[in-house]
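Purpose: get a first structural picture of the assembly so the mutagenesis plan has something to point at.
Setup: two entries, given in the order below. No constraints added.
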Amino acid sequence: DAGVTQSPTHLIKTRGQQVTLRCSPKSGHDTVSWYQQALGQGPQFIFQYYEEEERQRGNFPDRFSGHQFPNYSSELNVNALLLGDSALYLCASRKLTGAINYGYTFGSGTRLTVV
Amino acid sequence: RKEVEQDPGPFNVPEGATVAFNCTYSNSASQSFFWYRQDCRKEPKLLMSVYSSGNEDGRFTAQLNRASQYISLLIRDSKLSDSATYLCVVNSGSTNAGKSTFGDGTTLTVKP
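Result (structure tokens, whole complex):
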């Protein structure tokens, strides 16, 4: 049973460029959240997608946008990249429907470096 | 003030020691709570959920104090393999929805 898969694993971009990161949730999961993790910090919540809509959003600028597809996979787009966007981007999935929150399963992340 | 706060440590303990981590949260409407473990340059992995009645999984015990808005993790008989960063996670909103907010983690090093 495949867990959460993310691509690419590593990426180097230049300031001002745009980037798209991809995520396939664990089988049976229907919601995807994206997190940004800088060195020495905990993951910071970017947004959550469910039923192809953004349901929750953290304190990130509009340069960060996303999408969820009918098969529950998701993309994170970042426009006008800044040096400060360099981080590990984590995708996490769980099953939202149902009464109990069993917690997220994380992918291994995409390490983005902006130069 | 951060929504979820943890003592960053590091905690350096010998094998076999008992160690406890605390985490405080600011949103009194928070509904579900978790501890995750993150190894160096790896993704976070769910360690255990935290229930109001407290719960135990082998050498690990988690407690929740809603009145004081903190959760704790106790590790008994520490092993070298317990060395990692432990992340406290609080889910706000309804039990099932809402966003999960992470603390910055507490680093544990278990030494021989």
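Chain B touches chain A at residues 4, 31-32, 34, 36, 42-46, 49, 87, 89, 91, 93, 95-105 (CB under 8 Å).
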